[in-house]
TrEMBL record:
Residues 27-150 form the Tripartite ATP-independent periplasmic transporters DctQ component domain. It is found in: Cell inner membrane; Cell membrane. Pfam families: DctQ (PF04290). Belongs to the TRAP transporter small permease family. Its main location: membrane. The keyword Zinc-finger does not apply. It comes from Roseomonas fluvialis. The chain crosses the membrane at residues 47-65, 86-109, 129-152. This is TRAP transporter small permease protein. Keywords: Cell inner membrane, Cell membrane, Membrane, Transmembrane, Transmembrane helix, Transport. InterPro entries: DctQ. It is a multi-pass membrane protein. Part of the tripartite ATP-independent periplasmic (TRAP) transport system.
Length: 162
């Protein structure tokens, strides 16, 4: 499990770095468009680039957040539970996250195929929509794997004696 954790963590970190590059690109395009807009020459299709980049970036960040345990946790109702009960509840919720990630990955992959099949493209730059869908599908597929792994880890931790 330790070896698999390190491999998944490295993949998740690489995805987050790619997401960071996409985010910086979106910021750069936005800044350039604002500056050029001040002179009456905004970048045509800047919003298309920003929308696609941000969607993919978010999907690529999710596996890294999963491996680090960085998702928001609301523990208002669990503060009075024993540690073992919290561990089992955490394991069950991680399994639910894995299920949701799986559904999202399947749906976005289906969307990518549909966009490719229909040859849909953005209005100004005529960028194929499936590029954004496919990029997000990679991130969500990795999130599915990492969420499943973390769920299994949590179930193993919950089974250990306190």
């Amino acid at each position: 499990m330790t070896r698999l954790r390190s491999v998944l963590t490295a993949l998740a970190q690489a995805g987050a770095l790619v997401g960071g590059v996409l985010l910086l690109a979106a910021v750069g395009v936005t800044c350039a468009s604002v500056v050029r807009g001040a002179f009456g020459r905004p970048i045509l299709g800047d919003s298309e680039i920003v929308e696609m980049s941000l969607g993919v970036a978010v999907a690529l960040y999710l596996p890294w957040a999963e491996m680090r345990g960085s998702h928001v946790i609301v523990d208002v109702f669990t503060t009075r539970l024993p540690a073992r009960g919290v561990a089992w509840l955490d394991a069950a919720m991680r399994a639910c996250v894995a299920l949701v990630a799986t559904v999202l990955a399947v749906q976005i992959t289906d969307g990518a195929w549909r966009q490719w099949d229909r040859e849909r493209a953005t209005m100004f730059l005529e960028l194929p929509y499936w590029w954004g869908y496919a990029g997000a599908a990679v991130g969500l597929a990795l999130w599915t794997v990492t969420a499943g792994f973390v769920a299994v880890e949590r179930f193993q931790d919950a089974r250990r004696p306190a």
